[in-house]
Structure formats: C-alpha cells, structure tokens
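Researcher: We plan to redesign the surface later, but first we want a full-length starting point. Tokens attached.
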C-alpha cells in the first residue's frame, strides 16, 4: 500500500470529533422521538440532543474554517478524474448537510417555548413560540438528517473502497498518526 500524504493532526482530530458527534446525534435523535411525551426522559434526551448539536456546530465551524485555510493532501494519480470530482463534490455536500442540519435544528428549538439550551444554559432564540413554524423546521431537520445519514453511509463505503479495494492510501490520510515509539537507551 503506498504511503500517501496525510491531513494535518488538527483536521484529523476535528474530523473524528465531528463524526462521533454526528453519529451520537443521529442515534439520540432516532431514539428520542419514541420516548413518551411529557416525561422526564423525553426532556433529557431532547436537551442532550440540543446540547450535542450545539457542540457539534462549534466543531463543524472549526473544521470548515480549518479546511478552508489548509490545502488537502493530493489524491493519488491512480484515481480517475471522475472519482476526484466525485470526492470533492461529496465533501462539499457533506459539509452543506452538516450546516443545514444544525441550522434547521436550532430553528426548531428557537420556535419552541423550551428554546435552545446548551447543557441547561438558555441560548438566544431566533424566533418565538410558534407551533406551525416549529413543525416546518422540525420536518426539514428530520429530512436533512435522513438524507445526511445516507450520504454518510456513501462516504464510509467510499472510504472502505479505498482501504480494501484500491489500497491507495486515501483511507489512511484521515487516520490519527501514531506517535513514534520512545527510543530505548542502553
């Protein structure tokens, strides 16, 4: 397997923190809608989802800002042009869905009487208590999340293709670097 240029450590760390937060948000979001209404458990999961969503938003902004200021390592020459363009487009679409999902979720909370909170700390509302608007933003948030989950599955499948089929080092570009083993002194 060729040794490919890698992303810098900060981008790798942000990528995996964002990935873990998104997987947690999708899981909690899927679970929380089945929790009975007007129960403490429902409030707990909704507030956890909101808080993790806000934390993810900060990480997403940091990741996008860093990616805009750093050039990605070059893709291998063995990759066809269509695949290079597809990889670029795929990443742009993933970032777009990250941002749109966060905005739709925040707006859903903003048009609720409960409002957005970050681990119990109330945050600014961008709206007022409006059931009709909240439901529209909630529907958009759900649709964005479902499409986003499919896009993530495609992204993971493409990464695994590079690891298992192409064996071109693309997958390894986003893995954390291992520290050099400490030298042993005689």
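Model: Full-length starting sequence:
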């Amino acid at each position: 397997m060729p040794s490919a240029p890698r992303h810098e450590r900060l981008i790798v760390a942000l990528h995996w923190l964002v990935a873990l937060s998104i997987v947690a948000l999708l899981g909690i979001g899927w679970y929380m809608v089945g929790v009975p209404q007007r129960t403490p458990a429902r409030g707990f999961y909704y507030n956890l989802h909101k808080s993790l969503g806000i934390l993810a938003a900060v990480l997403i902004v940091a990741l996008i800002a860093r990616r805009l200021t750093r050039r990605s390592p070059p893709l291998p020459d063995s990759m066809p042009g269509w695949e290079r363009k597809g990889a670029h487009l795929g990443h742009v679409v993933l970032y777009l869905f990250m941002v749109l999902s966060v905005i739709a979720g925040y707006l859903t909370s903003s048009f609720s009487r409960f409002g957005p909170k970050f681990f119990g700390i109330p945050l600014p509302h961008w709206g007022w208590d409006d059931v009709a608007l909240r439901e529209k933003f909630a529907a958009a948030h759900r649709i964005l999340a479902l499409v986003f989950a499919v896009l993530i599955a495609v992204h993971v499948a493409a990464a695994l293709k590079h690891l298992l089929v192409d064996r071109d080092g693309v997958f390894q570009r986003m893995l954390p670097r291992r520290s050099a083993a400490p030298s042993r002194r005689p």
